[in-house]
Amino acid sequence: MAFAVIALITAPTFPASRPAERARHGMVVSTNPYASDVGREILQKGGNAVDAAVAVGFALAVVHPAAGNIGGGGFMVLHDSASGREHSIDYREMAPASAHRDMYLDEQGEVAPERSTVGYLASGVPGSVAGMHLAWKRFGKLPWKDLLQPSIRLARDGVIVSHVFARSLKNAEKLLSRFPETNRIFLKGGELYQEGETFRQPELARTLQRIAKKGPDAFYKGEIAQLIAEDMRANGGNITLKDLADYRAKMRQPVQGTYRGYEIVSMGPPSSGGVILVEMLNMVEPYPLTNLGFGASRTVHLVAEAMRRAFADRAEFLGDPDFSEVPVAGLIAKSYAQQWKPGILPDWASPSSFVSHGSPAPGESADTTHYSVVDADGNGVAVTTTINGSYGSGVTIRGAGFLMNNEMDDFSSKPGTPNMYGLIQGEANSIGPGKRPLSAMTPTLVKKDGKLFMVAGSPGGPTIINTVFQIILNVVDHGMDIQEAVDAPRMHHQWLPDQIAAEPEALVMDVVHALQNRGHKIAYRRRIGDAHCILIDPETGIRYGAPDPRRGESKASGY
Ligand code: DON
C-alpha cells in the first residue's frame, strides 16, 4: 500500500505525445514515415526483422540523407528468437591506410578548423553496405535484391519533400552549398527545396541498383569504388581503392549486463555505448530511484553523478578494441560500480576536476539515426547509423549520388582537446591507419525472463548513451509506458564540460535550485536525442512502437 501511494505521487506529470502504436505481429519505428513503411512491407512479405532492418537502412539513405546513408557506418544489435541469442555487427567507418595521428593538426600543433569535419579529408571508409550485407548473409531470409527494391524506387521516382526535410536542408544550406555536386543534388544548384515538391535522386538510384545486382563488391571493388576513389583523388581526399577493398564489417561480442532483473544487451567497442550504459545502470542500481521519483533533484543528482564518472572512464579506456585493450569486463562488473559508491555524496556534486577515471580490472581483452524492428517471430533488431554531422562531410561522390561521412572527427584529433561534441578523448582513441573511431552509438535490447522486451537507441553524439540510459530508467524505475519513456524530458552529463545539460522541461525551478545548491551547473539544450523504441508486452505479446516526437516526422509502422 505504501508503495502504491509513493508510486502515485511520483508518477510523471506530463502526458505522452500520443499513445504508442500497437501491433500483434511486427513493428518498425524510425525517424521517417517512408522508411518505417518500407520495413513493415518487408515484414508483411515474409521477411524477418533483419531483412526489414536492411531495407530500412537503405531506405533511410534515400529519404533521410542527413543521417541515413551508404557513405557512413553504424552498428546493429539483434536478437535471434530461434536460438535465444544476441549478435552484434560493427560496420563503423575505418581510417584509411594513409591516416596518421596528427593529420588534423596545423603547423602549430593545434587542431586545424574544419579539417576533420568538412570535405574530403573528413571521411573514414564507409561501412554501411558491408554491414547490411553481412547482417543479411548471416540472418536474412528474402533475396538481397528484394531488400533494395523499395529504396531504388524511392530514389528514382522521388519522395515528397516534407516540412521537416525542407527545414533540415535549409539548416544545412551553408555546408551543402560548398560542394558543387552536393549543391546540385540537394539544393537544386542554389535553390531550396520547398515542402510538397518531389525530390528525385537518379544517381543514387543507379548506385543502389548496382548494389542490388552485385552486392557489396559493387561498392568496395566495382564501379562505385572507382567513383569514390576518383573523386577523392581529384579533391585531396585520401580514401583509395585499396582502402575500400580492405574494408570488412565485423561480428562483435555484444556487451551484456543486468539491471534489476532485466538483461541488457548492447553494442561493445568500437562503440562506447554498451559499456558506458551498463556501467551507469550498475552505478544507480543500489539506489531506490522509484521512490525518489522521476525528475526529483536526488534522482537527477545521482543519475548525473553516474554519467560524470562513466564518461571519465570513456575518455580514458575506450577505443577500437583491435588496436588497444579495452577493459570491457572490468568496466561493466557490478563490483567495479560499487567502487564508485563512496564518492557519490547525496548533497554534493563532485566537481569533474576531482573525478578522474577509475581502475577497472584489466579485461582479457548535428546527425545520426536509430531505428528498431521486431518481427512476428519475436526477432528484434536495433540499428544506429550515421555519417556523423548532419549531412556528414558535405561531400557527395560525383556520379554516385551519396553523401560521405565526417566520422574521422570522432577520433581524438588531439588527445585532451574537445571534438565537435565537446568530448575530451584520450590516447586509446587516437588516429591510426585502419582504425575505427570511438562511437557513442548505443543500439540496445532489453530482455526479461530470456525473452525480448525492449528495443532502443537514439542519435545525439555522446547524449545517445544517456538517452538510452534514461529510457530504461523511465520504464524500469518510473513505471512509464514506452511512449511516455521516450517522450519524457532528458538531461545529459558527459564529465567535461562539468554541467548538466537539460531539456527545458526536464527540471522545474525547484529542482534546478536544489541541484545548484549541491554544486551542479545547469545548461539548457533544446532537444536531446531522437529515440525510436519498441516494447513487447510480456503478457500479451503486443508490440508497442514509440516514435520520438522530437524531430518531427517519426513513425511507428506495425501490422
Ligand atoms: O558515433 C558517434 O558517436 C557519433 N558519430 C554520433 C553522431 C550523432 O549521433 C549525431 N547526431 N545527432
Please describe what this structure looks like.
The protein has 559 residues and is an alpha+beta fold. The chain has 20 helices and 19 strands. It has helices spanning 2-10, 33-44, 49-63, 128-139, 144-157, 163-171, 173-176, 180-186, 202-214, 216-220, 223-234, 241-246, 273-284, 289-292, 297-317, 328-331, 334-340, 463-476, 482-487, 509-518, and strands spanning 21-23, 27-30, 73-80, 85-91, 159-160, 198-199, 250-252, 255-259, 262-266, 368-374, 380-386, 444-448, 451-456, 491-492, 500-502, 522-524, 533-536, 543-546, 555-558. Residues 1-9 have low confidence and may be disordered. The structure holds 6-diazenyl-5-OXO-L-norleucine. The site of 6-diazenyl-5-OXO-L-norleucine has 14 residues, from loops.
